[in-house]
Amino acid sequence: MVAKVSALFERLTADGIGYCHWKSNWMLDETMSGATDLDLLVERTNAAPFRKLLQDLGFRPAIELGFAPYPSVEHYHALDETSGRLVHVHAYYRVISGDSLTKNYRLPLEAMLFGNVRRVGMVNVPSKGSELVVFVLRMHLKHTTMAELTLLLRDWQKVRHEAAWLATEEARAEATMLLRAWLPSFDARLFEAALDALLAPAALWRRLLIARRVRAELRPFARYGRARASIVGLRKFVEKGTARMRRSRKGLAPASGGAVIAFVGAEASGKSTMLHAVDRWLGSHYTVQRIHAGKPPSTLLTVLPNLVLPALRALVPDQRSTVVSGRLNTQETSTGPAPFPLLFGIRSVLLAHDRRALLTRAFGSSANGAIVLCDRYPSVESGAVDGAQLGAGPRFRRDWVRRWLADLEARFYRDIPPPDLVIQLTTPLQVTLERNRTRAKSEPDEYVLSRHARSSRLRFERVPVENVDTDRPLQESTREIRQVIWDLL
């Protein structure tokens, strides 16, 4: 059991807060490990002390992005320091159910669930009969759109297992009695048919017919009429599809807002590994986008020049950016500033333009609640990795073309909004060289040496920078990074 989950249920009991974990209790062990959401139904009169309890335990509210949140439903997350997992409390003050897009039904069954609570370990859960009533109605309310049916069919084995776990002979008898008491207008024979259709299971066409009858019986409890429900569902479907195209998997964001988090460091310092780990960690709970500022996508202005760039590299190999930037840095440190080749200058300006476009969009996404994970980020130090490469314009007083290019590049970089947090990964040079040699796409040692030296010049003004040593077990570095990010959020 995760320590944060254990502490939560201990406090719920100690503070006398009325609650129950109201669904999916057949996999309660997995829930207690923090692997799935904690679906808590909380008595509305206990809402204020419940929120206070969560705050005391370090839980932070999250909000739905893109559309209005479901009524009477709240989300909270907390970091379990020992396991590194984010614990997600999905709190309900009313039984809100239906398909995943609209949750169109508010079922008046809260008192039924609270009145039939049993204790499993340290958790209050409904009796199997009362949970069975809610489960059968929930599952058939999901038999709506093709998208919803696809999701349901994907998890169909879990549905069958849960139905079999709940539908003991005693639970079926209790469910029949409770249904008669709490939903007296609902046809008891229809309920039995709906349950049998999940257990057998029945053919899809039969389940669809039964689901249609279930929705008709529950129509008095619908939040929207049919037409409006269809419109709301379609709008949310489009919004979720758009979010998927942006590679964000969840529709939640921290209530405090999103963030742009930059990972910087020398070659082979572990940026890709850490980004992947953080993406998986945060992406299972929040809306997360991952971008690469070192290799920004082309914009309309730069798409054609970028298309011919590989050919130019082949024709003029000594004009490659890595070659020229290394040469300029060497010359600058030994004999003073040196003029840059015009081709290199044009390429640097186009790259600055693309980075500004990418990072400006990232800033907008974070302002709208997304957490943007950025591989590399421009430094304010001229000549540093991913920063301005052309130097100050005044040094080219007699060369207006180079002065104009240098000034334009500098302006583009000045326009880039700062990140909310910079995580600078550090590794000893010898370790970096060894890691690079074992990579599938290794770079020449000279290149790695140059990048390592230039990465030491990274500078970010008015931005918190956390230095993380990656020359240690991955789990230790990951745990430190998770804590740093959670402190920010």
Report on this model:
The chain has 489 residues and is α/β, with parallel strands linked by helices. The protein has two domains: 239 residues, no CATH class; 232 residues, Rossmann fold. 50% of the residues lie in helices and 15% in strands. The chain contains 19 helices and 15 strands. The strands form four sheets. It has a six-stranded mixed β-sheet. It has a five-stranded parallel β-sheet with strand order 12-13-11-14-15. A hairpin with an 8-residue loop joins strand 3 and strand 4. Helix 5 packs across helix 9 and helix 9 runs antiparallel to helix 10. It is elongated, with a radius of gyration of 29 Å.
Summarize the structure.
It contains 19 helices and 15 strands.
How would the blueprint of this fold be written?
Layout: H1 3-14, E1 19-21, H2 28-32, E2 38-42, H3 47-56, E3 60-64, E4 73-79, E5 86-92, E6 95-97, E7 105-107, H4 110-114, E8 117-120, E9 123-126, H5 128-141, H6 146-154, H7 156-166, H8 169-182, H9 188-199, H10 204-217, H11 226-245, E10 252-254, E11 259-265, H12 271-283, E12 288-292, H13 303-315, H14 321-335, H15 342-367, E13 371-375, H16 400-415, E14 421-426, H17 429-438, H18 445-455, E15 465-469, H19 474-488
Helix pairs in contact: 5-8, 5-9, 9-10, 15-16, 17-18
